[in-house]
Amino acid sequence: VTLLKHNDFDIITNNPPECADLIVLSIPTDNWEISKVAALSSVSIQSPQENSNDPKYVQNNNLVVGKITGDGKGFSSSLQLKGLSMCMEVSELESEAYDVPIFVERANNFTSLVPVKNTYVLNGTLVCINLTFTEDDVIYFPARVSEGWETVTNINSWNIDTLVMMYIAMICFVILLLITIQQFLHHLKNWNRSDTFFSLPRLSCIVLVFFAIDRIIYFNLLPFGVFEAQGKSIATLDTFLSDFPSLLFLTLYALIVIKWANIKYVVLELKEVNNVLNYFQAAIISLIYVAFVIFLILFYFSNDYSLHICAPASVSGASSVSLGYKVVFTIICIGMMIAFLYFGSFLIKIMDREEGHSNRDKRVMKKIAYFTIICSIGLLAQAIFKLISSQLSSSQRISMATFIVVYIIITEFVPALFVLGVFSLSEDINSDSKSIKLTKSHKSGNYSGSGRHTGN
Description:
The protein is α+β, with helices and mostly antiparallel strands. It is 47% helix and 19% strand. It has helices at residues 160-189, 200-221, 232-267, 271-302, 318-352, 359-389, 394-399, 401-422, and strands at 2-11, 22-27, 33-34, 57-60, 63-68, 72-77, 81-89, 100-107, 112-115, 119-122, 126-133, 138-145, 307-308, 436-440, 447-451. Strands 2, 4, 5, 6, 8, 9 and 12 form a seven-stranded antiparallel beta sheet that branches. Strands 1-7-11-10 form a four-stranded antiparallel beta sheet, with no helix packed on it. The chain has a two-stranded antiparallel ribbon with strand order 3-13. Helix 1 (160-189) packs parallel to helix 8. The longest helix is centred in the middle third of the chain and has 36 residues, at 232-267.
Protein backbone atom coordinates (compact mmCIF):
# COMPACT_ATOMS: atom_id res chain seq x y z
CA VAL A 1 0.00 0.00 0.00
CA THR A 2 1.29 3.45 -0.94
CA LEU A 3 0.00 6.49 0.93
CA LEU A 4 0.22 9.88 -0.81
CA LYS A 5 -0.09 13.20 1.00
CA HIS A 6 -1.51 16.02 -1.13
CA ASN A 7 -0.88 19.74 -0.86
CA ASP A 8 -4.23 20.24 0.81
CA PHE A 9 -3.51 17.63 3.46
CA ASP A 10 -4.93 18.75 6.77
CA ILE A 11 -5.97 17.49 10.17
CA ILE A 12 -9.58 18.59 10.63
CA THR A 13 -9.73 19.81 14.24
CA ASN A 14 -10.08 23.17 15.95
CA ASN A 15 -6.71 22.84 17.60
CA PRO A 16 -4.67 20.64 15.26
CA PRO A 17 -1.78 18.81 16.90
CA GLU A 18 1.46 18.14 15.06
CA CYS A 19 0.53 14.56 14.13
CA ALA A 20 -2.27 12.00 14.05
CA ASP A 21 -2.15 8.25 14.49
CA LEU A 22 -3.07 6.34 11.32
CA ILE A 23 -3.62 2.58 11.55
CA VAL A 24 -3.55 0.44 8.40
CA LEU A 25 -5.05 -3.04 8.66
CA SER A 26 -5.16 -5.96 6.22
CA ILE A 27 -8.65 -7.45 5.77
CA PRO A 28 -8.25 -11.10 4.63
CA THR A 29 -10.90 -12.58 2.34
CA ASP A 30 -9.82 -16.24 2.26
CA ASN A 31 -12.57 -17.33 4.66
CA TRP A 32 -15.39 -15.42 3.07
CA GLU A 33 -18.22 -17.82 2.38
CA ILE A 34 -21.95 -17.65 1.88
CA SER A 35 -24.55 -20.02 3.17
CA LYS A 36 -25.24 -22.59 0.48
CA VAL A 37 -28.56 -21.65 -1.06
CA ALA A 38 -30.35 -24.72 -2.38
CA ALA A 39 -32.36 -24.88 -5.60
CA LEU A 40 -35.54 -26.91 -5.30
CA SER A 41 -36.14 -27.14 -9.04
CA SER A 42 -33.85 -29.40 -11.06
CA VAL A 43 -34.22 -27.21 -14.18
CA SER A 44 -33.92 -23.77 -12.60
CA ILE A 45 -31.68 -21.78 -14.96
CA GLN A 46 -29.17 -19.53 -13.23
CA SER A 47 -27.46 -16.63 -14.94
CA PRO A 48 -24.07 -15.14 -13.99
CA GLN A 49 -26.05 -12.82 -11.73
CA GLU A 50 -26.41 -15.73 -9.32
CA ASN A 51 -22.81 -14.93 -8.38
CA SER A 52 -24.36 -12.10 -6.37
CA ASN A 53 -24.70 -14.76 -3.66
CA ASP A 54 -20.89 -14.94 -3.55
CA PRO A 55 -19.42 -12.32 -1.19
CA LYS A 56 -16.35 -11.88 -3.42
CA TYR A 57 -18.29 -10.61 -6.42
CA VAL A 58 -18.88 -6.91 -7.00
CA GLN A 59 -22.37 -5.53 -7.66
CA ASN A 60 -23.76 -2.37 -9.15
CA ASN A 61 -27.53 -1.82 -8.95
CA ASN A 62 -27.84 -5.46 -7.80
CA LEU A 63 -26.03 -6.70 -10.94
CA VAL A 64 -22.71 -8.57 -10.82
CA VAL A 65 -20.08 -6.45 -12.58
CA GLY A 66 -16.74 -7.66 -11.15
CA LYS A 67 -14.78 -9.53 -8.51
CA ILE A 68 -12.28 -8.62 -5.81
CA THR A 69 -8.67 -9.63 -6.48
CA GLY A 70 -7.18 -9.69 -3.00
CA ASP A 71 -7.34 -8.69 0.63
CA GLY A 72 -8.82 -5.37 1.62
CA LYS A 73 -7.15 -2.53 3.45
CA GLY A 74 -8.70 -0.83 6.43
CA PHE A 75 -7.71 2.62 7.63
CA SER A 76 -8.40 4.10 11.01
CA SER A 77 -7.26 7.52 12.19
CA SER A 78 -7.17 9.02 15.66
CA LEU A 79 -8.28 12.32 14.11
CA GLN A 80 -10.27 13.46 11.11
CA LEU A 81 -8.05 13.84 8.04
CA LYS A 82 -8.27 15.00 4.44
CA GLY A 83 -5.87 15.27 1.51
CA LEU A 84 -4.59 11.69 1.72
CA SER A 85 -4.67 9.01 -0.99
CA MET A 86 -4.15 5.26 -0.93
CA CYS A 87 -2.69 3.44 -3.96
CA MET A 88 -2.35 -0.28 -4.72
CA GLU A 89 -1.54 -2.54 -7.61
CA VAL A 90 -4.59 -4.58 -8.63
CA SER A 91 -3.72 -8.07 -9.84
CA GLU A 92 -5.37 -9.56 -12.90
CA LEU A 93 -8.04 -12.27 -12.79
CA GLU A 94 -7.80 -15.50 -14.71
CA SER A 95 -10.79 -16.84 -16.68
CA GLU A 96 -12.94 -13.86 -15.73
CA ALA A 97 -14.36 -11.19 -18.07
CA TYR A 98 -13.33 -8.38 -15.74
CA ASP A 99 -10.53 -6.10 -16.93
CA VAL A 100 -10.94 -2.64 -15.38
CA PRO A 101 -9.03 -2.13 -12.07
CA ILE A 102 -10.97 -0.37 -9.36
CA PHE A 103 -11.59 -0.17 -5.62
CA VAL A 104 -14.78 -1.43 -4.02
CA GLU A 105 -16.29 -1.09 -0.57
CA ARG A 106 -18.76 -2.96 1.54
CA ALA A 107 -22.38 -1.77 1.48
CA ASN A 108 -25.88 -2.81 2.53
CA ASN A 109 -24.91 -3.68 6.08
CA PHE A 110 -21.72 -5.35 4.89
CA THR A 111 -23.59 -7.84 2.68
CA SER A 112 -22.41 -6.72 -0.76
CA LEU A 113 -19.44 -5.13 -2.55
CA VAL A 114 -20.05 -2.01 -4.64
CA PRO A 115 -17.58 -0.02 -6.79
CA VAL A 116 -16.15 3.28 -5.60
CA LYS A 117 -16.43 5.79 -8.44
CA ASN A 118 -13.73 8.32 -7.45
CA THR A 119 -10.74 6.11 -8.21
CA TYR A 120 -7.92 7.00 -10.60
CA VAL A 121 -4.83 5.32 -12.08
CA LEU A 122 -1.35 6.58 -11.24
CA ASN A 123 1.72 5.79 -13.37
CA GLY A 124 -0.31 3.26 -15.37
CA THR A 125 -0.08 0.56 -12.69
CA LEU A 126 -1.29 1.94 -9.36
CA VAL A 127 -4.99 2.37 -8.65
CA CYS A 128 -5.58 5.20 -6.19
CA ILE A 129 -8.42 6.64 -4.18
CA ASN A 130 -8.71 9.75 -2.07
CA LEU A 131 -9.22 9.00 1.61
CA THR A 132 -11.34 11.13 3.89
CA PHE A 133 -11.48 10.13 7.54
CA THR A 134 -14.49 11.22 9.51
CA GLU A 135 -16.00 9.21 12.36
CA ASP A 136 -15.99 5.80 10.63
CA ASP A 137 -13.13 3.56 9.58
CA VAL A 138 -12.44 3.24 5.86
CA ILE A 139 -12.15 -0.19 4.19
CA TYR A 140 -11.44 -0.73 0.49
CA PHE A 141 -10.83 -3.86 -1.58
CA PRO A 142 -8.92 -4.12 -4.88
CA ALA A 143 -11.12 -5.45 -7.67
CA ARG A 144 -11.60 -5.69 -11.40
CA VAL A 145 -14.89 -4.92 -13.13
CA SER A 146 -16.22 -5.25 -16.66
CA GLU A 147 -16.10 -2.50 -19.26
CA GLY A 148 -19.20 -0.33 -19.03
CA TRP A 149 -20.02 -1.67 -15.57
CA GLU A 150 -22.09 1.43 -14.79
CA THR A 151 -24.58 0.71 -17.60
CA VAL A 152 -24.76 -3.10 -17.52
CA THR A 153 -28.25 -4.66 -17.56
CA ASN A 154 -29.56 -8.15 -16.82
CA ILE A 155 -30.09 -9.11 -20.43
CA ASN A 156 -26.52 -8.34 -21.52
CA SER A 157 -25.09 -10.18 -18.53
CA TRP A 158 -26.07 -13.54 -20.07
CA ASN A 159 -23.74 -15.54 -22.27
CA ILE A 160 -24.85 -15.07 -25.86
CA ASP A 161 -25.28 -18.81 -26.51
CA THR A 162 -27.54 -19.18 -23.46
CA LEU A 163 -29.58 -16.14 -24.46
CA VAL A 164 -30.06 -17.45 -28.01
CA MET A 165 -31.12 -20.89 -26.74
CA MET A 166 -33.65 -19.33 -24.34
CA TYR A 167 -35.35 -17.47 -27.19
CA ILE A 168 -35.26 -20.60 -29.36
CA ALA A 169 -36.94 -22.48 -26.51
CA MET A 170 -39.58 -19.77 -26.15
CA ILE A 171 -40.32 -19.93 -29.89
CA CYS A 172 -40.60 -23.74 -29.67
CA PHE A 173 -43.18 -23.52 -26.89
CA VAL A 174 -45.12 -20.79 -28.71
CA ILE A 175 -45.33 -23.14 -31.71
CA LEU A 176 -46.38 -25.97 -29.39
CA LEU A 177 -49.13 -23.77 -27.91
CA LEU A 178 -50.51 -22.84 -31.34
CA ILE A 179 -50.50 -26.47 -32.55
CA THR A 180 -52.16 -27.64 -29.33
CA ILE A 181 -54.91 -25.01 -29.53
CA GLN A 182 -55.55 -25.89 -33.17
CA GLN A 183 -55.77 -29.60 -32.37
CA PHE A 184 -58.04 -28.96 -29.38
CA LEU A 185 -60.42 -26.96 -31.57
CA HIS A 186 -60.52 -29.82 -34.08
CA HIS A 187 -61.27 -32.30 -31.30
CA LEU A 188 -63.96 -29.95 -30.02
CA LYS A 189 -65.49 -29.64 -33.49
CA ASN A 190 -65.68 -33.42 -33.82
CA TRP A 191 -66.99 -33.96 -30.31
CA ASN A 192 -69.89 -36.38 -30.16
CA ARG A 193 -72.20 -34.95 -27.50
CA SER A 194 -73.01 -38.41 -26.25
CA ASP A 195 -69.35 -38.89 -25.25
CA THR A 196 -67.62 -37.35 -22.27
CA PHE A 197 -66.00 -34.00 -22.91
CA PHE A 198 -62.86 -34.96 -21.01
CA SER A 199 -61.71 -37.71 -23.34
CA LEU A 200 -57.98 -38.40 -23.31
CA PRO A 201 -57.16 -36.42 -26.50
CA ARG A 202 -59.01 -33.30 -25.31
CA LEU A 203 -57.67 -33.63 -21.78
CA SER A 204 -54.14 -33.98 -23.15
CA CYS A 205 -54.59 -30.77 -25.15
CA ILE A 206 -55.80 -28.88 -22.06
CA VAL A 207 -52.78 -30.04 -20.03
CA LEU A 208 -50.38 -29.11 -22.85
CA VAL A 209 -51.91 -25.62 -23.18
CA PHE A 210 -51.16 -24.86 -19.53
CA PHE A 211 -47.74 -26.49 -19.91
CA ALA A 212 -46.79 -24.35 -22.94
CA ILE A 213 -48.09 -21.11 -21.37
CA ASP A 214 -45.99 -21.71 -18.24
CA ARG A 215 -42.83 -22.34 -20.28
CA ILE A 216 -43.45 -19.25 -22.45
CA ILE A 217 -43.86 -17.04 -19.37
CA TYR A 218 -40.73 -18.52 -17.77
CA PHE A 219 -38.47 -18.04 -20.79
CA ASN A 220 -39.90 -14.57 -21.41
CA LEU A 221 -39.11 -13.37 -17.87
CA LEU A 222 -35.79 -15.18 -17.42
CA PRO A 223 -33.49 -12.91 -19.52
CA PHE A 224 -34.64 -9.77 -17.70
CA GLY A 225 -33.49 -10.85 -14.24
CA VAL A 226 -36.92 -11.29 -12.67
CA PHE A 227 -35.64 -14.28 -10.68
CA GLU A 228 -32.26 -12.79 -9.73
CA ALA A 229 -33.33 -10.78 -6.69
CA GLN A 230 -32.57 -12.55 -3.44
CA GLY A 231 -35.47 -13.55 -1.26
CA LYS A 232 -37.76 -16.44 -0.44
CA SER A 233 -40.68 -15.21 -2.53
CA ILE A 234 -38.59 -14.87 -5.69
CA ALA A 235 -36.99 -18.29 -5.13
CA THR A 236 -40.44 -19.85 -4.67
CA LEU A 237 -41.77 -18.18 -7.84
CA ASP A 238 -38.72 -19.40 -9.76
CA THR A 239 -39.29 -22.94 -8.50
CA PHE A 240 -42.99 -22.86 -9.39
CA LEU A 241 -42.54 -21.60 -12.95
CA SER A 242 -39.54 -23.80 -13.71
CA ASP A 243 -40.81 -27.09 -12.22
CA PHE A 244 -44.61 -26.89 -12.52
CA PRO A 245 -44.49 -27.92 -16.24
CA SER A 246 -42.75 -31.14 -15.16
CA LEU A 247 -45.73 -31.87 -12.92
CA LEU A 248 -48.13 -31.23 -15.81
CA PHE A 249 -46.15 -33.69 -17.92
CA LEU A 250 -46.26 -36.30 -15.17
CA THR A 251 -50.02 -35.74 -14.99
CA LEU A 252 -50.29 -36.34 -18.73
CA TYR A 253 -48.14 -39.47 -18.50
CA ALA A 254 -50.28 -40.76 -15.64
CA LEU A 255 -53.50 -40.24 -17.62
CA ILE A 256 -52.10 -42.10 -20.62
CA VAL A 257 -50.56 -45.02 -18.75
CA ILE A 258 -53.72 -45.57 -16.68
CA LYS A 259 -55.77 -45.58 -19.90
CA TRP A 260 -53.42 -48.23 -21.31
CA ALA A 261 -53.80 -50.22 -18.09
CA ASN A 262 -57.58 -49.98 -18.52
CA ILE A 263 -57.24 -51.56 -21.95
CA LYS A 264 -55.21 -54.45 -20.56
CA TYR A 265 -57.73 -55.29 -17.88
CA VAL A 266 -60.61 -54.97 -20.37
CA VAL A 267 -58.82 -57.65 -22.38
CA LEU A 268 -58.41 -59.78 -19.25
CA GLU A 269 -62.06 -59.14 -18.36
CA LEU A 270 -61.11 -57.89 -14.91
CA LYS A 271 -63.68 -55.15 -14.41
CA GLU A 272 -63.05 -54.90 -10.68
CA VAL A 273 -59.41 -53.99 -11.40
CA ASN A 274 -60.54 -51.23 -13.77
CA ASN A 275 -62.68 -49.74 -11.02
CA VAL A 276 -59.65 -49.70 -8.73
CA LEU A 277 -57.56 -48.09 -11.49
CA ASN A 278 -59.88 -45.09 -11.62
CA TYR A 279 -59.26 -44.44 -7.92
CA PHE A 280 -55.55 -45.13 -8.38
CA GLN A 281 -55.38 -42.53 -11.16
CA ALA A 282 -56.90 -39.87 -8.93
CA ALA A 283 -54.58 -40.89 -6.08
CA ILE A 284 -51.33 -40.75 -8.10
CA ILE A 285 -52.17 -37.38 -9.66
CA SER A 286 -53.16 -35.97 -6.26
CA LEU A 287 -49.93 -37.32 -4.76
CA ILE A 288 -47.85 -35.50 -7.38
CA TYR A 289 -49.39 -32.11 -6.62
CA VAL A 290 -49.70 -32.54 -2.85
CA ALA A 291 -46.02 -33.55 -2.65
CA PHE A 292 -45.04 -30.53 -4.75
CA VAL A 293 -47.00 -28.10 -2.55
CA ILE A 294 -45.57 -29.60 0.67
CA PHE A 295 -41.99 -29.41 -0.56
CA LEU A 296 -42.56 -25.87 -1.85
CA ILE A 297 -43.82 -24.74 1.57
CA LEU A 298 -40.92 -26.45 3.37
CA PHE A 299 -38.49 -24.88 0.92
CA TYR A 300 -39.93 -21.41 1.50
CA PHE A 301 -39.56 -21.57 5.29
CA SER A 302 -36.18 -23.34 5.40
CA ASN A 303 -34.10 -21.36 2.90
CA ASP A 304 -31.45 -19.06 4.33
CA TYR A 305 -30.30 -16.10 2.24
CA SER A 306 -28.06 -14.49 4.83
CA LEU A 307 -24.38 -13.84 4.20
CA HIS A 308 -21.87 -15.60 6.41
CA ILE A 309 -18.29 -14.37 6.60
CA CYS A 310 -16.92 -17.56 8.09
CA ALA A 311 -15.42 -20.93 7.31
CA PRO A 312 -16.76 -23.42 6.58
CA ALA A 313 -19.96 -22.19 4.99
CA SER A 314 -23.16 -23.08 6.74
CA VAL A 315 -25.69 -25.25 4.94
CA SER A 316 -29.31 -24.12 4.99
CA GLY A 317 -32.12 -26.52 5.84
CA ALA A 318 -33.42 -26.05 2.29
CA SER A 319 -30.65 -28.36 1.03
CA SER A 320 -32.29 -31.32 2.79
CA VAL A 321 -35.71 -30.29 1.47
CA SER A 322 -34.29 -30.03 -2.05
CA LEU A 323 -32.68 -33.47 -1.83
CA GLY A 324 -35.89 -35.04 -0.51
CA TYR A 325 -37.92 -33.41 -3.29
CA LYS A 326 -35.62 -34.72 -6.01
CA VAL A 327 -35.54 -38.24 -4.56
CA VAL A 328 -39.35 -38.44 -4.33
CA PHE A 329 -39.91 -37.23 -7.89
CA THR A 330 -37.08 -39.41 -9.20
CA ILE A 331 -38.94 -42.43 -7.81
CA ILE A 332 -42.17 -41.21 -9.43
CA CYS A 333 -40.43 -40.75 -12.81
CA ILE A 334 -38.86 -44.23 -12.68
CA GLY A 335 -42.17 -45.83 -11.66
CA MET A 336 -43.95 -44.03 -14.51
CA MET A 337 -41.27 -45.14 -16.98
CA ILE A 338 -41.63 -48.81 -15.97
CA ALA A 339 -45.42 -48.55 -16.30
CA PHE A 340 -45.07 -47.00 -19.78
CA LEU A 341 -42.79 -49.79 -20.99
CA TYR A 342 -45.00 -52.51 -19.52
CA PHE A 343 -48.40 -51.36 -20.73
CA GLY A 344 -47.11 -49.96 -24.03
CA SER A 345 -45.51 -53.31 -24.82
CA PHE A 346 -48.77 -55.05 -23.92
CA LEU A 347 -50.76 -52.89 -26.36
CA ILE A 348 -48.35 -53.63 -29.20
CA LYS A 349 -48.38 -57.33 -28.29
CA ILE A 350 -52.16 -57.77 -28.43
CA MET A 351 -52.45 -55.73 -31.64
CA ASP A 352 -49.66 -57.70 -33.27
CA ARG A 353 -51.55 -60.97 -32.64
CA GLU A 354 -54.43 -59.84 -34.82
CA GLU A 355 -54.40 -61.36 -38.27
CA GLY A 356 -54.41 -59.48 -41.56
CA HIS A 357 -52.82 -56.19 -40.51
CA SER A 358 -53.74 -53.24 -42.66
CA ASN A 359 -51.48 -50.24 -43.20
CA ARG A 360 -53.56 -48.41 -40.62
CA ASP A 361 -52.86 -51.15 -38.06
CA LYS A 362 -49.16 -50.85 -38.71
CA ARG A 363 -49.27 -47.08 -38.30
CA VAL A 364 -51.07 -47.46 -34.98
CA MET A 365 -48.48 -49.91 -33.65
CA LYS A 366 -45.64 -47.68 -34.83
CA LYS A 367 -47.17 -44.68 -33.08
CA ILE A 368 -47.57 -46.57 -29.82
CA ALA A 369 -44.04 -48.00 -30.08
CA TYR A 370 -42.41 -44.64 -30.80
CA PHE A 371 -44.49 -42.92 -28.16
CA THR A 372 -43.57 -45.55 -25.54
CA ILE A 373 -39.86 -45.28 -26.33
CA ILE A 374 -39.71 -41.47 -26.44
CA CYS A 375 -41.72 -40.99 -23.24
CA SER A 376 -39.73 -43.67 -21.40
CA ILE A 377 -36.44 -42.05 -22.42
CA GLY A 378 -37.79 -38.65 -21.35
CA LEU A 379 -38.83 -39.98 -17.94
CA LEU A 380 -35.49 -41.73 -17.45
CA ALA A 381 -33.64 -38.52 -18.39
CA GLN A 382 -35.72 -36.54 -15.88
CA ALA A 383 -35.01 -39.10 -13.14
CA ILE A 384 -31.26 -39.06 -13.80
CA PHE A 385 -31.04 -35.27 -14.05
CA LYS A 386 -33.00 -34.74 -10.84
CA LEU A 387 -30.39 -36.79 -8.97
CA ILE A 388 -27.48 -35.06 -10.71
CA SER A 389 -28.92 -31.60 -10.06
CA SER A 390 -29.08 -32.30 -6.32
CA GLN A 391 -25.26 -32.27 -6.30
CA LEU A 392 -24.74 -29.14 -8.43
CA SER A 393 -23.34 -26.00 -6.87
CA SER A 394 -24.52 -22.53 -7.88
CA SER A 395 -21.42 -21.95 -10.05
CA GLN A 396 -21.98 -25.28 -11.82
CA ARG A 397 -25.60 -24.35 -12.54
CA ILE A 398 -24.40 -21.08 -14.04
CA SER A 399 -21.97 -22.89 -16.36
CA MET A 400 -24.70 -25.40 -17.32
CA ALA A 401 -27.38 -22.82 -18.17
CA THR A 402 -27.24 -23.49 -21.93
CA PHE A 403 -27.27 -27.26 -21.36
CA ILE A 404 -30.37 -27.00 -19.13
CA VAL A 405 -32.27 -25.06 -21.81
CA VAL A 406 -31.38 -27.72 -24.42
CA TYR A 407 -32.35 -30.43 -21.92
CA ILE A 408 -35.80 -28.82 -21.45
CA ILE A 409 -36.37 -28.70 -25.22
CA ILE A 410 -35.38 -32.37 -25.68
CA THR A 411 -37.20 -33.86 -22.69
CA GLU A 412 -40.35 -31.70 -22.81
CA PHE A 413 -40.92 -30.12 -26.22
CA VAL A 414 -40.12 -33.24 -28.27
CA PRO A 415 -42.31 -35.64 -26.19
CA ALA A 416 -45.11 -33.04 -26.30
CA LEU A 417 -45.03 -33.16 -30.10
CA PHE A 418 -45.27 -36.96 -29.92
CA VAL A 419 -48.29 -36.66 -27.63
CA LEU A 420 -49.99 -34.41 -30.17
CA GLY A 421 -49.00 -36.82 -32.94
CA VAL A 422 -50.51 -39.80 -31.14
CA PHE A 423 -53.71 -37.90 -30.41
CA SER A 424 -53.95 -36.20 -33.80
CA LEU A 425 -57.44 -36.21 -35.26
CA SER A 426 -57.17 -39.14 -37.62
CA GLU A 427 -58.95 -42.43 -37.81
CA ASP A 428 -55.79 -44.28 -36.81
CA ILE A 429 -56.39 -44.42 -33.09
CA ASN A 430 -58.43 -41.41 -32.08
CA SER A 431 -61.87 -41.47 -33.62
CA ASP A 432 -64.26 -41.11 -30.71
CA SER A 433 -66.86 -43.12 -32.57
CA LYS A 434 -64.59 -46.16 -32.80
CA SER A 435 -64.32 -48.44 -29.82
CA ILE A 436 -62.29 -51.41 -28.73
CA LYS A 437 -63.48 -54.96 -28.52
CA LEU A 438 -60.72 -57.22 -27.27
CA THR A 439 -61.31 -60.63 -25.79
CA LYS A 440 -59.29 -63.38 -24.24
CA SER A 441 -59.67 -67.03 -25.13
CA HIS A 442 -59.93 -68.71 -21.74
CA LYS A 443 -58.96 -72.06 -23.18
CA SER A 444 -55.83 -71.07 -25.04
CA GLY A 445 -54.89 -68.06 -22.97
CA ASN A 446 -54.23 -66.11 -26.17
CA TYR A 447 -55.46 -62.62 -26.84
CA SER A 448 -57.44 -61.64 -29.88
CA GLY A 449 -59.20 -58.50 -30.86
CA SER A 450 -61.23 -56.60 -33.38
CA GLY A 451 -61.71 -52.94 -33.98
CA ARG A 452 -59.20 -50.27 -33.00
CA HIS A 453 -58.43 -48.80 -29.62
CA THR A 454 -59.38 -45.17 -29.63
CA GLY A 455 -57.61 -42.19 -28.19
CA ASN A 456 -60.74 -41.83 -26.09
